[in-house]
Each structure stands twice: as C-alpha cells, then as structure tokens.
Amino acid sequence: MLLETASGRNCDTAPGAVVCRELHRALLLAKLQPRGAQEVRKEQVNSNLEARMEVLMPEPQIYVERTLAIIKPDIIDKEEEIEDLILRSGFHIIQKRNLQLSPEQCSNFYAEQFGKMFFPNLTAYMSSGPIVAMVLARNCAVSYWKELLGPSNSVRARITHPHSLRALYGTDELRNGLHGSLSISSAEKEIRFIFPEAILEPVPTGQRARDYLNLYVKPTLLAGLTALCKEKPADPMIWLADWLIEHNPNKPKLQYRISQ
C-alpha cells in the first residue's frame, strides 16, 4: 500500500519520501501494540518525525546571491545595449549608479592589486571618465557573471571566448570593458564600497552587525533622541517615528531633469 501526501502525490516520488515511509511503518507498529504502549509509541514517532523533518527538509532560504558589475569609462556609450544583455541572461538589476571615481577612490577599490606593475595605469584608466555600477542578482550570480564576462584579457577572450562580453566590448588586458567581482566575499566588499547604504543578505551578525549599527544606525538614532528630548512632544513614540522617517539617511533621492 502506498501512502499519499496531502497534495495527492505518491510518497515514493515526493521530496519527503523517506519521512513518509518511516511514518507509515511506525504507525503500523503502533497499532499492533497495547493501548498504553500506543500512546508512548506515538510520542516517540512524533519526536523522531520532527527530528527527521529538520534534517531532510530545512528552513527555506530566501537569500539571493549578488555581484557587482561595472561598465568602464571607454564603453559607457554601450550602457543600454549591455544592460539588455544582462537582463536577457537572467539577472535582475537591483541597484544602479552613474558616478566618476577619483584616482584615490580607485586606489581604494583596487587595493588588492596595489604593488602590481599595472596598478597606476588601472587607477588612471578607471578614473578617466564616468562609469556605471550595478548590483546584479540571480542564483549563483558571481559565477554566472564571471562566465558571461569571459577572460580578463580581451585579446585572449576573442580567441577562447569569442561571444563573451569582454571579447565583444574590450580592447586589451587593461581596457577590458567591464568589471565583475571574483568571489562572494569580494562582491560584498565592492557593493558596500559603491553602494554604502546597501543591506546585503544574509543580514550581518556579530562584529559585522555591530559595525553596521555604529556606522549607519546609531548616529541617526542619537540625533533623533536628542531632538526628542528638546521637543518633549505629547506622544514621543509617534514623534520619534515620524522624525526617523523624515531624516532617514538611506531615503532615495530623486533627481529631476528640467526640460527647457
């Protein structure tokens, strides 16, 4: 006899097939025992079932991997074309920012490359004009974006990966058109550098959480509590909530174009 799940699927093909079979076997054994022993057996079955379910069916993960993509100065005119390729490759553009980095900022961003022969040329190139930075999200975002980019040397990419983005848009090893994070940890670091207000998943804990609170939360909260003490409103909770909404440092800022 085959036991079915609530959705009507056969247990042998359901994700919890092992749990279903064990539960079915345990219930049959419980029915063959005296009434008093049945109650004890049911408690054991429930306990064992919960333990097995935790192992075989863990809590679902909402975390979606993110990576940083940068369109470099020499191909900024290809922005729309590249964004279309990104979206058609299954990525979501979570955040986007147009900016121009100073040589000092470029040095900080590429600090791991400091001391290498190409470092001065790299910082000069990356600070030579505006760039477009994007936070891309999808399953295995870091590895998929690296695969889409191809080798860092555009000359080599045109030979080994002719359909990669660096083969299509890059010039040589230095001016390779686009940047991509090398690992999940470097993606987190680079995203925080370009988008300091971003909250990355999983939510930080321990020292990282304390650093975030000290840098982004406590200054605003302290200013709000100070203003609350000076104002002394009738309903301090509502007043403070309104104040924090109004003075949220991460509140989006819209830039309007004035048409002539």
Protein described:
This protein is α+β, with helices and mostly antiparallel strands. It has helices at 17-31, 35-56, 79-88, 103-109, 119-126, 141-149, 154-160, 165-169, 184-194, 206-231, 236-246, and strands at residues 66-71, 92-99, 131-137, 178-180. The protein has a four-stranded antiparallel sheet. α1 (17-31) runs antiparallel to α2, α4 (103-109) packs across α5 and α10 crosses α11 (236-246). The protein starts with 16 loop residues before the first helix and ends in a 14-residue tail after the last helix.
Describe the structure in brief.
This protein is of the alpha+beta class. The chain has helices at residues 17-31, 35-56, 79-88, 103-109, 119-126, 141-149, 154-160, 165-169, 184-194, 206-231, 236-246; strands spanning 66-71, 92-99, 131-137, 178-180.
Strand-residue proportion: 5-15%
Structural class: alpha+beta
Please state the average pLDDT score. Answer: 80
Structural shape: flat
List unreliable stretches of 5+ residues. 1-15, 254-260
Order of adjacent strands in the largest pleated sheet: 2-3-1-4
Alpha-carbon distance between the two ends: 78 Å
Number of helices: 11
Secondary-structure element sequence? Answer: HHEHEHHEHHHEHHH
* CA-atom Rg in angstroms: 28 Å
- The amount of helix comes to 40-55%
- Kindly state the number of beta strands: 4
Query: Main sheet, how many strands, which sense, barrel?
Result: 4 strands, antiparallel
Name a few traits of the molecule.
260 residues, alpha+beta, 4-stranded antiparallel beta sheet, 4 strands, 50% helix, disordered N terminus
